Amino acid sequence: MVHDATNRPIHPASLILSGVAIATGPTDRHRRGLDAERAGFAATPDMNKVVAQYTFGPNSSTGWHTHPGKTLLTVKSGTFTVYHAKDCEPNVYGPGHAFVELPSSVHVGRNETGSVIELGVVFFNVPVGSSPRIDQAQPEGCAVT
């Protein structure tokens, strides 16, 4: 059993937890471009940002789940396929690809290859003392597991 920094169990397929960071609010400095608050990634009291690295073996699955907040994923190596409950269609991501999962998105991530996959993940707005993952039931009409 793998545990996080506060000794709570973590149940994904394979996980190396890189750390937990608690962000601070914006400074008064002028910034150009899209800022964290407008993008929905600003610091929130009583919420953590969890940074993790996942390694998935060949032909493995995350199981159906959601997250309490937005989740940013980057594919370091391999091919990661994500299915959403709303349409059960494959979304395929390779090395260098990044994508965001919204908290309302029921999804499953799969390694449908014979190689190892490495992902970098940042979970936003995880309530202190909670898991960044919320298990969900298999959606009706979708045979993907």
Write up what this structure looks like.
It is a single chain. This protein has 1 helix and 13 strands. The two termini are 22 Å apart. It is globular, with a radius of gyration of 16 Å. The chain has one helix spanning 36-39, and strands at 2-3, 9-10, 15-21, 47-56, 60-61, 65-66, 71-77, 80-84, 90-93, 98-101, 107-111, 117-127, 134-135. It has a single domain, classed as Jelly Rolls (Sandwich). It is mostly beta strands and 145 residues long. It is 3% helix and 43% strand. Strands 3-4-12-7-10 form a 5-stranded antiparallel sheet, with no helix packed on it. A 4-stranded antiparallel sheet has the order 5-11-8-9, with no helix packed on it.
Low-confidence stretches: 8-32
Which structural class matches the secondary elements? mainly beta
CATH class: Mainly Beta
CA gyration radius, whole angstroms: 16 Å
Tell me the overall shape.
globular
Spatial strand sequence of the major β-sheet: 3-4-12-7-10
What's the architecture in CATH terms? Answer: Sandwich
Largest sheet descriptor = 5 strands, antiparallel
Query: Level of helix content?
Result: under 10%
Number of strands: 13
Q: Beta-strand level of the residues, as a percent range?
A: 35-45%
The termini sit apart by 22 Å
Q: Please give the count of helices.
A: 1
Mean pLDDT comes to 82
CATH fold label: Jelly Rolls
Number of domains: 1
In the CATH hierarchy, what is the superfamily?
A: Jelly Rolls
Order of helices and strands: EEEHEEEEEEEEEE
